[in-house]
Amino acid sequence: MKLTILAIIIIISQVGWINLAKAANPAAMRRLLETNECLRCDLSKANLSNANLIGANLEGANLQEANLSGANLVATILSDANLSNANLFRATMNDADLRGADLTDAYLSHANLSRASLTEANLENANLFEANLIESLASGANLSNANLRQSSWFRANLENADLRASDLFSANMHQANLKNANFSNANLTKAKLMETNITLANLSGANLEGVNLRGTSIGISVCLIINYIGCAPQKVIPEVK
Fold it and tell me: Do 187 and 210 touch, CB atoms closer than 8 A?
């Protein structure tokens, strides 16, 4: 009986490895690791955990459901890549090019995306809990329904970004560009929005409990929507000394 169970486990394991190899496309994996480039390759479900891919060219690559946890993706080109449902936990992605990339449902908790280009990227439903996005470029990005709790966006560019229903609890957006950003129905509880310009931002239905708007420029239209205490057309929320 024990031998039969062992045989079944071995067979299942072998089938699993075969399926993984098929899914990961061994030829594409070999090309990437040998040449550090694989444009428009099929690397879906590939296991690239802790891989060193500094400066790699993966433009348009299919990395759907790939495991890139802990990977070094500094200055990596991932523009127009499919990273939906990918695992990027603690990945180092500073200065990476992710313009137009599909990151829907991606797991980016604790990832380093400082100075990364996320222009027009799709991060709907993505998990960016405690992610570092300092000075990142995310203009026009879709971050709707994303988990952005305690993430850092210091001096980031979020102009025209879609943050509808996103969770920004205690997020740091100090000096970020929020022009025309859509925060409707977003959770901004205890978020740090000091010295930002939200004059043209959409904050309808947003939760602003305990939000820090110190030194922030707030326009009349925004005042009417958020009904913030002490709200006025000009910069009237003084710096606390």
Answer: no
